[in-house]
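can u do me a favor
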Protein backbone atom coordinates (compact mmCIF):
# COMPACT_ATOMS: atom_id res chain seq x y z
CA UNK A 1 0.00 0.00 0.00
CA UNK A 2 1.27 3.47 -0.85
CA UNK A 3 0.87 4.57 2.74
CA UNK A 4 2.78 7.70 3.79
CA UNK A 5 3.23 8.85 0.19
CA UNK A 6 -0.21 8.96 -1.32
CA UNK A 7 -1.83 9.90 1.95
CA UNK A 8 0.63 12.73 2.63
CA UNK A 9 2.13 13.47 6.01
CA UNK A 10 0.61 14.40 9.34
CA UNK A 11 1.68 17.98 8.63
CA UNK A 12 -0.25 17.99 5.32
CA UNK A 13 -3.32 16.79 7.17
CA UNK A 14 -3.19 19.24 10.06
CA UNK A 15 -6.21 21.23 8.87
CA UNK A 16 -8.30 18.10 8.33
CA UNK A 17 -7.30 16.83 11.79
CA UNK A 18 -8.39 20.14 13.27
CA UNK A 19 -11.74 19.85 11.52
CA UNK A 20 -12.11 16.28 12.77
CA UNK A 21 -11.37 17.23 16.37
CA UNK A 22 -13.79 20.14 16.35
CA UNK A 23 -16.77 18.45 14.67
CA UNK A 24 -20.00 19.00 16.65
CA UNK A 25 -20.55 16.03 18.97
CA UNK A 26 -22.92 15.02 21.70
CA UNK A 27 -21.48 13.06 24.62
CA UNK A 28 -22.78 9.50 24.79
CA UNK A 29 -19.75 7.30 25.46
CA UNK A 30 -17.30 7.15 28.35
CA UNK A 31 -14.20 7.90 26.27
CA UNK A 32 -11.45 6.86 26.01
CA UNK A 33 -12.51 3.25 26.30
CA UNK A 34 -9.85 1.11 28.01
CA UNK A 35 -7.07 -0.64 26.11
CA UNK A 36 -6.26 -3.81 27.97
CA UNK A 37 -3.61 -6.52 27.52
CA UNK A 38 -5.18 -9.99 27.33
CA UNK A 39 -2.53 -12.05 29.12
CA UNK A 40 -4.24 -15.43 29.30
CA UNK A 41 -5.88 -15.19 25.87
CA UNK A 42 -2.55 -14.16 24.34
CA UNK A 43 -0.85 -17.18 25.84
CA UNK A 44 -3.60 -19.46 24.55
CA UNK A 45 -3.29 -18.33 20.93
CA UNK A 46 0.43 -17.57 20.80
CA UNK A 47 0.21 -13.84 19.96
CA UNK A 48 0.29 -10.67 22.07
CA UNK A 49 -3.30 -9.42 21.99
CA UNK A 50 -4.64 -6.14 23.37
CA UNK A 51 -8.34 -5.40 23.54
CA UNK A 52 -9.93 -2.01 22.81
CA UNK A 53 -12.98 -2.19 25.05
CA UNK A 54 -15.77 -0.49 23.12
CA UNK A 55 -18.00 -3.21 24.59
CA UNK A 56 -17.92 -1.39 27.92
CA UNK A 57 -20.58 1.11 28.94
CA UNK A 58 -24.16 1.07 30.12
CA UNK A 59 -26.02 -1.85 28.48
CA UNK A 60 -28.04 0.53 26.30
CA UNK A 61 -25.07 2.68 25.24
CA UNK A 62 -22.31 0.10 24.73
CA UNK A 63 -20.66 -0.96 21.48
CA UNK A 64 -19.25 0.63 18.36
CA UNK A 65 -22.39 2.52 17.31
CA UNK A 66 -22.12 4.93 20.23
CA UNK A 67 -19.13 6.73 18.72
CA UNK A 68 -20.99 7.15 15.43
CA UNK A 69 -24.14 8.46 17.08
CA UNK A 70 -22.14 11.12 18.92
CA UNK A 71 -21.59 12.78 15.54
CA UNK A 72 -24.74 11.71 13.71
CA UNK A 73 -27.08 13.03 16.40
CA UNK A 74 -25.16 16.28 16.76
CA UNK A 75 -25.96 16.80 13.05
CA UNK A 76 -29.58 15.81 13.63
CA UNK A 77 -29.99 18.29 16.48
CA UNK A 78 -28.26 21.03 14.47
CA UNK A 79 -30.82 20.39 11.70
CA UNK A 80 -33.63 20.88 14.24
CA UNK A 81 -34.72 17.23 14.29
CA UNK A 82 -36.87 15.93 17.13
CA UNK A 83 -37.31 12.32 15.94
CA UNK A 84 -34.63 9.78 15.05
CA UNK A 85 -35.62 7.16 12.48
CA UNK A 86 -33.24 4.29 11.97
CA UNK A 87 -33.15 0.67 10.93
CA UNK A 88 -31.39 -2.67 11.12
CA UNK A 89 -31.96 -6.37 11.73
CA UNK A 90 -34.47 -7.51 14.35
CA UNK A 91 -31.71 -7.68 16.96
CA UNK A 92 -29.82 -4.64 15.68
CA UNK A 93 -27.23 -3.18 18.04
CA UNK A 94 -27.28 0.03 16.05
CA UNK A 95 -31.06 0.42 16.40
CA UNK A 96 -30.86 -0.19 20.15
CA UNK A 97 -28.04 2.33 20.47
CA UNK A 98 -30.07 4.84 18.47
CA UNK A 99 -33.04 4.31 20.78
CA UNK A 100 -30.86 4.87 23.86
CA UNK A 101 -29.10 7.90 22.42
CA UNK A 102 -32.41 9.47 21.37
CA UNK A 103 -33.79 8.92 24.88
CA UNK A 104 -30.71 10.56 26.38
CA UNK A 105 -31.11 13.59 24.10
CA UNK A 106 -34.87 13.97 24.57
CA UNK A 107 -35.69 12.87 21.00
CA UNK A 108 -38.35 10.43 19.90
CA UNK A 109 -37.16 7.31 18.11
CA UNK A 110 -38.81 5.14 15.46
CA UNK A 111 -37.09 1.86 14.56
CA UNK A 112 -37.94 0.11 11.31
CA UNK A 113 -36.50 -3.39 11.71
CA UNK A 114 -36.28 -6.14 9.10
CA UNK A 115 -38.22 -9.34 9.71
CA UNK A 116 -41.50 -10.03 11.52
CA UNK A 117 -42.34 -9.24 15.13
CA UNK A 118 -41.13 -12.23 17.16
CA UNK A 119 -43.32 -13.82 19.83
CA UNK A 120 -40.82 -12.97 22.57
CA UNK A 121 -38.96 -9.68 22.85
CA UNK A 122 -35.50 -10.47 24.17
CA UNK A 123 -32.04 -8.87 24.21
CA UNK A 124 -31.81 -5.70 22.06
CA UNK A 125 -35.48 -5.90 21.08
CA UNK A 126 -36.48 -5.85 24.72
CA UNK A 127 -34.23 -2.83 25.30
CA UNK A 128 -35.68 -1.01 22.27
CA UNK A 129 -39.12 -1.00 23.88
CA UNK A 130 -37.78 -0.29 27.36
CA UNK A 131 -35.99 2.75 25.93
CA UNK A 132 -39.30 4.06 24.59
CA UNK A 133 -38.69 3.55 20.87
CA UNK A 134 -41.61 2.89 18.54
CA UNK A 135 -40.68 -0.41 16.91
CA UNK A 136 -42.04 -1.29 13.47
CA UNK A 137 -41.29 -4.40 11.41
CA UNK A 138 -40.65 -4.20 7.67
CA UNK A 139 -41.05 -7.93 6.95
CA UNK A 140 -38.67 -9.91 4.76
CA UNK A 141 -36.95 -7.05 2.93
CA UNK A 142 -33.29 -6.78 1.95
CA UNK A 143 -31.03 -4.02 3.30
CA UNK A 144 -31.07 -2.31 -0.09
CA UNK A 145 -34.88 -2.01 -0.07
CA UNK A 146 -35.00 -0.12 3.20
CA UNK A 147 -34.35 3.36 1.73
CA UNK A 148 -37.87 4.00 0.37
CA UNK A 149 -39.45 2.46 3.49
CA UNK A 150 -37.47 4.85 5.70
CA UNK A 151 -38.53 7.78 3.54
CA UNK A 152 -42.16 6.74 3.92
CA UNK A 153 -41.70 6.52 7.65
CA UNK A 154 -40.20 10.04 7.65
CA UNK A 155 -43.16 11.34 5.61
CA UNK A 156 -45.55 9.87 8.24
CA UNK A 157 -43.65 11.65 10.97
CA UNK A 158 -43.71 14.96 9.10
CA UNK A 159 -47.46 14.58 8.55
CA UNK A 160 -47.78 14.19 12.33
CA UNK A 161 -45.94 17.50 12.82
CA UNK A 162 -42.54 16.05 13.74
CA UNK A 163 -39.09 16.80 12.37
CA UNK A 164 -37.53 13.42 11.52
CA UNK A 165 -33.87 12.61 10.86
CA UNK A 166 -32.92 9.31 9.19
CA UNK A 167 -29.75 7.50 10.27
CA UNK A 168 -28.78 4.70 7.84
CA UNK A 169 -28.09 1.03 8.65
CA UNK A 170 -25.36 0.84 11.27
CA UNK A 171 -25.30 4.66 11.53
CA UNK A 172 -22.69 4.29 8.79
CA UNK A 173 -23.04 7.68 7.15
CA UNK A 174 -19.85 9.52 6.22
CA UNK A 175 -20.31 11.67 9.32
CA UNK A 176 -20.93 8.64 11.55
CA UNK A 177 -17.79 6.94 10.26
CA UNK A 178 -15.73 9.88 11.45
CA UNK A 179 -16.44 8.73 15.01
CA UNK A 180 -13.96 5.97 14.21
CA UNK A 181 -11.40 8.34 12.72
CA UNK A 182 -11.41 9.97 16.15
CA UNK A 183 -11.29 6.51 17.70
CA UNK A 184 -8.13 5.64 15.76
CA UNK A 185 -6.44 8.76 17.15
CA UNK A 186 -7.63 7.75 20.62
CA UNK A 187 -6.02 4.32 20.17
CA UNK A 188 -2.77 5.83 18.90
CA UNK A 189 -2.52 7.99 22.03
CA UNK A 190 -3.02 4.90 24.19
CA UNK A 191 -0.40 2.90 22.26
CA UNK A 192 2.04 5.83 22.56
CA UNK A 193 1.45 5.90 26.32
CA UNK A 194 2.46 2.23 26.64
CA UNK A 195 5.95 2.85 25.28
CA UNK A 196 7.86 5.00 22.78
CA UNK A 197 7.82 2.50 19.92
CA UNK A 198 4.66 0.62 20.81
CA UNK A 199 2.43 2.14 18.13
CA UNK A 200 5.07 1.34 15.50
CA UNK A 201 5.57 -2.24 16.64
CA UNK A 202 1.84 -3.00 16.87
CA UNK A 203 1.08 -4.92 13.70
CA UNK A 204 -2.65 -4.48 13.21
CA UNK A 205 -6.05 -3.56 14.54
CA UNK A 206 -8.59 -6.33 13.87
CA UNK A 207 -12.32 -5.66 14.09
CA UNK A 208 -15.65 -6.87 12.71
CA UNK A 209 -17.15 -5.07 9.73
CA UNK A 210 -20.61 -5.09 8.14
CA UNK A 211 -22.11 -1.70 7.19
CA UNK A 212 -18.58 -0.27 7.13
CA UNK A 213 -18.53 2.88 9.26
CA UNK A 214 -16.07 1.42 11.74
CA UNK A 215 -13.56 0.29 9.12
CA UNK A 216 -13.93 3.42 6.98
CA UNK A 217 -13.39 5.69 9.97
CA UNK A 218 -10.37 3.75 11.22
CA UNK A 219 -8.61 3.96 7.85
CA UNK A 220 -9.33 7.69 7.61
CA UNK A 221 -7.87 8.17 11.11
CA UNK A 222 -4.77 6.20 10.14
CA UNK A 223 -4.34 8.12 6.90
CA UNK A 224 -4.62 11.46 8.70
CA UNK A 225 -2.18 10.41 11.41
CA UNK A 226 0.12 8.98 8.70
CA UNK A 227 1.27 6.27 11.10
CA UNK A 228 0.05 3.40 13.24
CA UNK A 229 -1.03 -0.24 12.95
CA UNK A 230 -2.83 -1.32 9.81
CA UNK A 231 -6.57 -1.94 9.89
CA UNK A 232 -8.00 -5.39 9.16
CA UNK A 233 -11.75 -5.86 8.91
CA UNK A 234 -13.38 -9.25 9.33
CA UNK A 235 -16.60 -9.24 7.33
CA UNK A 236 -19.52 -10.71 9.27
CA UNK A 237 -21.95 -11.37 6.44
CA UNK A 238 -21.70 -9.41 3.20
CA UNK A 239 -24.05 -6.60 4.12
CA UNK A 240 -22.19 -4.60 1.45
CA UNK A 241 -22.40 -6.17 -2.01
CA UNK A 242 -18.65 -5.62 -2.60
CA UNK A 243 -17.14 -4.95 0.85
CA UNK A 244 -13.70 -3.62 -0.26
CA UNK A 245 -15.28 -1.31 -2.84
CA UNK A 246 -18.00 -0.15 -0.45
CA UNK A 247 -15.54 0.48 2.38
CA UNK A 248 -13.23 2.48 0.10
CA UNK A 249 -16.19 4.58 -1.08
CA UNK A 250 -17.35 5.27 2.47
CA UNK A 251 -13.81 6.10 3.63
CA UNK A 252 -13.51 8.55 0.70
CA UNK A 253 -16.82 10.20 1.62
CA UNK A 254 -15.75 10.48 5.28
CA UNK A 255 -12.40 12.06 4.26
CA UNK A 256 -14.28 14.47 1.98
CA UNK A 257 -16.34 15.67 4.99
CA UNK A 258 -13.02 16.91 6.38
CA UNK A 259 -11.89 18.29 3.04
CA UNK A 260 -8.91 15.97 3.39
CA UNK A 261 -6.90 15.24 0.28
CA UNK A 262 -7.08 11.47 0.54
CA UNK A 263 -8.47 8.91 -1.86
CA UNK A 264 -9.08 5.25 -1.15
CA UNK A 265 -9.28 2.35 -3.59
CA UNK A 266 -10.58 -1.13 -2.93
CA UNK A 267 -6.93 -2.30 -3.01
CA UNK A 268 -6.19 -0.08 0.03
CA UNK A 269 -8.80 -1.91 2.11
CA UNK A 270 -7.90 -5.09 3.99
CA UNK A 271 -11.20 -6.89 4.50
CA UNK A 272 -11.37 -10.66 5.00
CA UNK A 273 -14.49 -12.45 3.83
CA UNK A 274 -13.69 -16.00 4.87
CA UNK A 275 -14.97 -15.82 8.46
CA UNK A 276 -18.54 -14.71 7.74
CA UNK A 277 -19.99 -18.22 7.38
CA UNK A 278 -22.87 -18.85 4.99
CA UNK A 279 -24.76 -15.62 5.77
CA UNK A 280 -25.17 -12.62 8.04
CA UNK A 281 -26.32 -13.96 11.41
CA UNK A 282 -25.26 -17.57 10.70
CA UNK A 283 -23.36 -19.06 13.61
CA UNK A 284 -19.93 -20.49 12.78
CA UNK A 285 -18.01 -23.11 14.77
CA UNK A 286 -14.81 -21.05 14.77
CA UNK A 287 -16.68 -18.03 16.22
CA UNK A 288 -18.21 -20.17 18.98
CA UNK A 289 -14.73 -21.56 19.81
CA UNK A 290 -13.17 -18.08 19.87
CA UNK A 291 -16.01 -16.66 22.01
CA UNK A 292 -15.65 -19.49 24.53
CA UNK A 293 -11.88 -19.05 24.66
CA UNK A 294 -12.07 -15.30 25.33
CA UNK A 295 -14.83 -15.74 27.92
CA UNK A 296 -12.93 -18.49 29.73
CA UNK A 297 -9.51 -16.85 29.68
CA UNK A 298 -10.45 -13.19 30.22
CA UNK A 299 -14.08 -12.97 31.36
CA UNK A 300 -14.95 -10.90 28.26
CA UNK A 301 -18.05 -11.71 26.21
CA UNK A 302 -18.40 -11.50 22.42
CA UNK A 303 -21.42 -12.43 20.31
CA UNK A 304 -21.74 -14.89 17.42
CA UNK A 305 -23.19 -12.38 14.91
CA UNK A 306 -20.47 -9.73 15.00
CA UNK A 307 -17.60 -9.51 17.46
CA UNK A 308 -17.17 -13.30 17.70
CA UNK A 309 -16.56 -13.51 13.95
CA UNK A 310 -13.94 -10.76 14.17
CA UNK A 311 -12.30 -12.59 17.04
CA UNK A 312 -12.33 -15.86 15.08
CA UNK A 313 -10.56 -14.05 12.24
CA UNK A 314 -7.91 -12.77 14.61
CA UNK A 315 -7.35 -16.24 16.11
CA UNK A 316 -7.02 -17.80 12.63
CA UNK A 317 -4.51 -15.13 11.57
CA UNK A 318 -2.53 -15.57 14.80
CA UNK A 319 -2.34 -19.31 14.20
CA UNK A 320 -1.07 -18.60 10.68
CA UNK A 321 1.76 -16.53 12.20
CA UNK A 322 0.46 -13.08 11.17
CA UNK A 323 1.33 -11.46 14.49
CA UNK A 324 4.77 -12.85 15.26
CA UNK A 325 6.41 -9.44 14.64
CA UNK A 326 4.46 -7.53 17.29
CA UNK A 327 1.20 -7.05 19.18
CA UNK A 328 -2.27 -6.98 17.66
CA UNK A 329 -5.27 -5.01 18.90
CA UNK A 330 -8.68 -6.68 18.90
CA UNK A 331 -11.22 -3.86 18.66
CA UNK A 332 -14.18 -5.22 20.65
CA UNK A 333 -17.15 -3.63 18.93
CA UNK A 334 -19.68 -4.90 21.48
CA UNK A 335 -22.80 -6.84 20.53
CA UNK A 336 -22.80 -9.10 23.61
CA UNK A 337 -26.53 -8.35 24.06
CA UNK A 338 -27.20 -11.09 21.48
CA UNK A 339 -26.21 -13.80 23.95
CA UNK A 340 -29.47 -12.98 25.76
CA UNK A 341 -31.43 -13.93 22.64
CA UNK A 342 -31.94 -17.71 23.03
CA UNK A 343 -31.49 -18.18 19.25
CA UNK A 344 -27.84 -17.11 19.60
CA UNK A 345 -27.10 -17.66 23.27
CA UNK A 346 -28.02 -21.37 23.31
CA UNK A 347 -25.53 -22.03 20.48
CA UNK A 348 -22.67 -20.95 22.72
CA UNK A 349 -23.31 -23.52 25.44
C1 LIG B 1 -21.33 -5.51 17.63
C2 LIG B 1 -21.03 -5.00 16.27
N1 LIG B 1 -19.77 -5.13 15.79
C3 LIG B 1 -19.44 -4.70 14.57
C4 LIG B 1 -20.39 -4.14 13.74
C5 LIG B 1 -19.96 -3.69 12.39
O1 LIG B 1 -19.69 -2.32 12.40
P1 LIG B 1 -19.96 -1.46 11.08
O2 LIG B 1 -21.45 -1.46 10.89
O3 LIG B 1 -19.42 -0.14 11.41
O4 LIG B 1 -19.27 -2.12 9.97
C6 LIG B 1 -21.71 -3.99 14.18
C7 LIG B 1 -22.74 -3.42 13.30
O5 LIG B 1 -23.91 -3.47 13.58
C8 LIG B 1 -22.03 -4.43 15.49
O6 LIG B 1 -23.27 -4.29 15.98
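np, heres the sequence
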Amino acid sequence: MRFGFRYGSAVDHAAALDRLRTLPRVTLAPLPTPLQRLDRFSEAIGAEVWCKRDDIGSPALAGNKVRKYELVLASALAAGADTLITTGATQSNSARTGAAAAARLGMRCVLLLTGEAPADRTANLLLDSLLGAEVRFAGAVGWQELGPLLERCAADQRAAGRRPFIAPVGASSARGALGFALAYLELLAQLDAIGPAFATSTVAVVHTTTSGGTHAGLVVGRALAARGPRVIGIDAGRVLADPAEGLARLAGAAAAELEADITFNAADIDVRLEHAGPAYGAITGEAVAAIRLLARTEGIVCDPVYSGKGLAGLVAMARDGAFTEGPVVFWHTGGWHAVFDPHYGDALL
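The first strand starts at residue 35 and ends at 37. hope that helps!!
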